[in-house]
From TrEMBL:
Keyword Transport: yes
Annotated protein name in UniProt: Major facilitator superfamily domain-containing protein 9 isoform X2
SUPFAM superfamilies reported for this sequence: MFS general substrate transporter
InterPro entries: MFS, MFS_trans_sf
Membrane topology category: Multi-pass membrane protein
PANTHER family: MAJOR FACILITATOR SUPERFAMILY DOMAIN-CONTAINING PROTEIN 10 (PTHR23504), MAJOR FACILITATOR SUPERFAMILY DOMAIN-CONTAINING PROTEIN 9 (PTHR23504:SF14)
Gene giving rise to this polypeptide: MFSD9
Organism the protein comes from: Trichechus manatus latirostris
Subcellular location(s) per record: Membrane
Primary location: membrane
Coiled coil: none
Annotated family: Belongs to the major facilitator superfamily.
Superkingdom field: Eukaryota
Length: 344
């Protein structure tokens, strides 16, 4: 309910599109690292306490957002989940059995992007050995090193395509409410109906993935290529539309193409990376998307200074670059992942 109205709210405070983009990018930067920080902190104080703290601080953030009367307060209101840093950090010793997982221990990636994941459960009351939790910035550095190894591996093109398509779609949504108001005089209430309609179609699109996969013989790369072509065409159509009928038509099909694309890019990562690297690949994929959340608001603000049609037009250009990359390089599957998908 909040996100679609943020562009209107920050505009009412007198901020330019570029300033609004900078504020949005700082939120993306915090979001990129917050999961690691909060995860480490929850190991110290416990999951329940961490969850309650995050929920309460998020509630405080929404309260500040609703009461904000300046751009500064607007920016501050987007930060409160970082309030967990106000709590003192200390090295806490955990008692674990010999088979337990050592906190903070990270396995290095091999040249074939294999990633060995160890699972363990902490036993309460065990006294055989003690492990020390590492400080959060050390965890972040380790995570970034692993991310770098994956991104610069043979899968670089897949992660680049994921980033380009994520930014393209985010640019489309970034000023959706504001653009419809400026271009067609559509009030936020009607735009809300359109967003709900598109979201419902996106949810229904999931039911079509099975038949589509069978039609394409489980070729995720081809499905992703075709869905990206459709996304590019619809973004271009949306940015040049002169009537609300064209807007509704493009939004309808975009809900379908983006839902299919999100699923296919994740499936392609797992197919190429192999089953052993599934956890690391999903994590890095989410981090790549988080980087898109940093870049998209800033780009949107800059091009919106020129025209309200600027963000979707730039999104179409980025989608075209992703299509070009996919056309040049078709990834090879790793292990028996593709055969397993076919059997399922």
């Amino acid at each position: 309910m909040v996100v679609p109205l943020l562009s209107l709210h920050v505009k009412s405070l007198g901020a330019s599109p570029t300033v609004a983009g900078i504020v949005g990018s700082t939120y993306g930067i915090l979001q990129l690292f917050s999961s690691t920080f909060v995860g480490c902190w929850s190991d110290v104080v416990g999951k329940r306490s961490a969850l309650l703290t995050c929920i309460l601080s998020s509630a405080l953030g929404y309260l500040l957002l609703g009461a904000s009367t300046s751009v500064f307060l607007f920016a501050v209101a987007r930060v409160p989940v970082e309030l967990v840093w106000l709590f003192p950090w200390s090295e806490v010793k955990f008692s674990t059995t010999k088979n337990d997982l050592q906190l903070g221990k990270n396995n290095r990636l091999s040249g074939n992007t294999g990633y060995k994941v160890q699972d363990a459960a902490t036993a309460r009351g065990a006294t055989t050995s003690e492990k020390t939790a590492r400080l959060p910035w050390i965890e972040v550095l380790s995570a970034l090193q692993d991310m770098k190894s994956l991104i610069f591996s043979k899968m670089w093109d897949i992660f680049l395509v994921r980033l380009l398509m994520a930014v393209a779609v985010m640019l489309y949504y970034s000023n959706f409410v504001l653009a419809l108001e400026e271009r067609f005089g559509v009030r936020p209430k009607m735009t809300g109906y359109l967003i709900s309609y598109s979201s419902a179609l996106g949810a229904l699109a999931g039911f079509a993935l099975g038949p589509i996969m069978r039609l394409y013989k489980h070729d995720s790369h081809t499905i992703l290529l075709h869905s990206s072509l459709l996304t590019f065409t619809l973004l271009l159509l949306y940015s040049t539309a002169h009537t609300m009928g064209v807007i509704v038509f493009s939004s309808t099909l975009l809900s379908f193409s983006t839902a299919v694309g999100r699923t296919c890019i994740t499936d392609l990562q797992l197919t190429v990376g192999g089953a052993q690297a599934s956890g690391a690949l999903i994590g890095v994929g989410q981090s790549v998307t988080a980087v898109g959340r940093i870049v998209a608001p800033l780009l949107s603000g800059v091009v919106q200074e020129v025209s309200p049609c600027g963000p979707p037009s730039l999104g179409a250009a980025l989608a075209l670059v992703a299509i070009f990359i996919m056309s040049l390089k078709k990834p090879r599957s790793s292990g028996n992942r593709s055969d397993k998908l076919k059997s399922e």
